[in-house]
Amino acid sequence: MEFHRHPHTYVGLVHLIVADLDRSLTFYKELIGLQVLEQSEHKVVLTADGFTPLLIIERPENVLDKQRQTTGLYHYALLLPNRSDLGSVLRHFIQNGYPLQGASDHLVSEAIYLADPDGNGIEIYIDRPSNTWSWENGEVIMTTDPLDAEGLLAEGEGKMWEGLPKDTVMGHIHLHVAELDEIKEFYTAGLGFDIANSMYGDQVLFVSTGNYHHHIGLNTWNGVGAPQQPENSVGLRSFSIVLPSEEERKRTIEQLRQIGATISQENETILTQDPSGNWIKLCI
């Protein structure tokens, strides 16, 4: 988890809108294995360790159905500490008969993919040691190969399911965006991320800090020029970027202003919005 703490900039809390709060809460507690940190009539804050918020699920009164072919969430990704943890999660999903959407070996990581009851994408993964990652011309090499599911299950065998490990963190977020040129400027010149991988042509871009394989993925798979999702539709409401210091936050705000990005404040929270309409909280 070296890439998800000071002095790096990384993704923290993800905030989702759901259609049925009780249904989603059951899913996230019983299948995913998160715990309730805070709960109110319309909102639940979820955690893995009992004190660090990882995910908010909210049902606003005027919630709209999930919109297709818009910008917004592709998936958020929970990073587990050990391969045996991922094996245990995979076995748990199989035993519960919950359908997976994919399972891949990305060279830098091993991952399984699914969706919550509203279709919000979820990746659960582990990283291979960073000293085994290969880099070419300053970019990390990733691919999508079949996952060694049998080996993963064998590694997790005998490990009792007790929910997600306490060391689970929000590993990254992957977003649908409308285009990549302006988005690239926003996330690099504005937010200060580095390009980690641009080898997928004009469809996908991965950015990070500290030579991580990616803290944020950006794709145009919902179509170039895809419209923004309505404000209260099921999907992503916002996500937070954790910056290493107040000085770094001030520098980031100035960088965003220089490229014409909007900065706003809601109580004590500083927000910005990327060119595809994804809301981001700037935290320390």
UniProtKB/TrEMBL annotation:
Residue ranges occupied by any VOC domain in the UniProt entry: 10-127, 169-284
Superkingdom of origin organism: Bacteria
Cleavable signal peptide: none
Gene3D superfamilies assigned: 2,3-Dihydroxybiphenyl 1,2-Dioxygenase, domain 1
Protein's name according to its UniProt entry: VOC family protein
A Pfam family that the UniProt record links to this protein: Glyoxalase
PANTHER family membership: CATECHOL-2,3-DIOXYGENASE
InterPro entries from the UniProt entry: Glyas_Bleomycin-R_OHBP_Dase (IPR029068), Glyas_Fos-R_dOase_dom (IPR004360), VOC_core (IPR037523)
